[in-house]
Amino acid sequence: xxxxxxxxxxxxxxxxxxxxxxxxxxxxxxxxxxxxxxxxxxxxxxxxxxxxxxxxxxxxxxxxxxxxxxxxxxxxxxxxxxxxxxxxxxxxxxxxxxxxxxxxxxxxxxxxxxxxxxxxxxxxxxxxxxxxxxxxxxxxxxxxxx
Length: 146
Hints:
Elements: H1 15-21, H2 24-32, E1 50-54, E2 60-63, E3 67-68, E4 76-77, E5 93-98, E6 105-110, E7 116-121, E8 131-134, E9 139-143
Antiparallel strand pairs: 1-2, 1-9, 3-4, 4-8, 5-6, 6-7, 7-8
């Protein structure tokens, strides 16, 4: 019996196919769990209304309505698109435990293709107090009504 995945679909592309589809920086961040340098992302200061999608599979992830300036150097969001209260079952993201840097953090990945997006921290605004700290290079912005 195969390992059951929590994602909607198994990642359909092999590493070599992702490498062809993505820029080297997109591949590093989304497929190898990298991080873009702080204050370098194209969406850090974007204030246009619209939706942020996964750069790998085009899944809607975050609305501009939930974006705010955290001063940390990466685009920050107070919740994922599709969240209802504390219920993220209809959101386009999954949370995973990350111990890669010697401390426990919560990694955020795309539910559809498992692309690494960034991390979520408990120091954000509002009642939920969340800060989704997301790499610009993992996102594709589509302007319009969020």
